[in-house]
């Protein structure tokens, strides 16, 4: 386990998956990341790469050859190497191998960089295409933020506030796939949280006007703001009765039910030119 910290925050990160395990606010000594209870969901904040969601029929096609990939990709289940570290910053690297090439036929470097700046944790995702051909991939975040529930604060006191008022239309989930049809949640800036809000699985939105979303509650000033510019998809999810909510900015999305299997034709897939570099960043602001 690696630790970075400053006067405001202490962050614990595992080498496996470069996964955030804790974000502790030193002001109130509270951990803002879900504890990872296997009775509900054992992860805390996995990095999703090179796929998001599942594949139609459990496979995809590149250059006429079929491959199979785990839901949400293999990065979260592999060890990353620490290549740079100081008190407030850590840089991880996960590279292709003979094993990954059997599952995903592209040569890549994936860098994850975590940096603290006062009460903000910045996450940078950098993907390098090491191949002499175009590379297709998806990448996204899956952090589960804890909901502090006690005798004074109930689950229903929490809500999500979008930066702008949105016409919230979520794709309909069919197993591990998405349907083109959408369910309309109405025009709103506030999404109230109830224990059964996600009884039908995640909400998956595309091309929101908002580039920020904040988890708040009505009883105290504890909050987490997620700033996600240049991520075309946003998913929200939890397990019924679990005291967390996932706020998931994505570059990419699940296969749709009518997907033809050709990775180059996948809706939302990122395309990186030979020897090209892709970069995105997220910010978690902790109060």
Which keywords apply here?
287 residues, mainly beta, Beta-galactosidase, Chain A, domain 5, six-stranded antiparallel β-sheet, 1 helix, globular
Write the layout of secondary structure elements.
Layout: E1 2-5, E2 9-13, E3 20-25, E4 30-31, E5 47-48, E6 60-62, E7 65-67, E8 81-85, E9 89-95, H1 98-103, E10 108-117, E11 120-129, E12 135-137, E13 139-141, E14 144-146, E15 158-174, E16 177-192, E17 203-206, E18 212-217, E19 224-227, E20 233-237, E21 244-251, E22 270-272, E23 277-286
Antiparallel strand pairs: 1-2, 2-3, 3-4, 5-13, 6-7, 8-9, 9-10, 10-11, 11-23, 12-22, 13-21, 14-21, 15-16, 15-18, 17-20, 18-19, 19-23, 20-21
Describe the protein in words:
The protein has 287 residues and is mainly beta. It has a single domain, classed as Beta-galactosidase, Chain A, domain 5 (Distorted Sandwich). It has 1 helix and 23 strands. A 9-stranded antiparallel beta sheet has the order 8-9-10-11-23-19-18-15-16, with no helix packed on it. Strands 5, 13, 14, 17, 20 and 21 form a 6-stranded antiparallel beta sheet that branches. Strands 1-2-3-4 form a 4-stranded antiparallel beta sheet, with no helix packed on it. It is globular. The mean pLDDT is 96.
